[in-house]
Amino acid sequence: MDNARTIALTLKQEPPMQDTRAMLESHLDTIPMVKAMQVAIGDIEPTRLQLTAPLSVNLNDKGCAFGGSLVSLMTLAGWALVTARLHDAGFAETEVFVADSEVKYKAPLWDDLIAEVVAAEGESLEDFVAAFAQKGKARITVEARVPLPDGGVATSMRARYAAFAKR
C-alpha cells in the first residue's frame, strides 16, 4: 500500500472513544461553571452524546432542576457532540460556538439531569465534518433534550453551532 493511501485510511479511522472522552473532559475541566454543576460525560456514540449533572447542586428555589442548569447542560452537550465529531475526524484545532438556540421548558424535573443530543432531523454530522474539511468552517443544527424519569421530556432545545479552524 502506498504512503498516501495509508495516510488517508489512517485519517478516516475513528480514534478510540476514551481519547474523545479525555479530550472533552480536559476542555470541560477548564470551565468553572461546569465544575460547579458537577457535569459528567455519559454515553458517547458517533451520532449521540450524553452529559449528566446531579440535581443536588442544580436546584432552584422550588427544589426541582434550575432552568439555567438545564439549558447550560444541553448547550454543553451540543458543543461536546460537535467538538467530538471534529476531533474524531482529525480536526483537533477547532473553535466551536453556539450561534443561536431555542429552548422549551415542558415540565419540572425532580431528578438528576441527563442531557441527550443528536443532529437535528435533516442534518448530518458526516456532511458537517465534510463541509468543515472543505471550507475550514461549518454549521450544524442539533436537538437536545432532558428526559423525565417516566420517559417524557422536561426540557428541549434546538441549537445551531458554528465551527471554525483555529488561526
UniProtKB/TrEMBL annotation:
InterPro entries named in the record: HotDog_dom_sf (IPR029069), YiiD_C (IPR012660)
UniProt superkingdom: Bacteria
Chain ranges of the Thioesterase putative domain: 28-161
Descriptive protein name: Thioesterase domain-containing protein, putative
Organism in which the protein naturally occurs: Solilutibacter tolerans
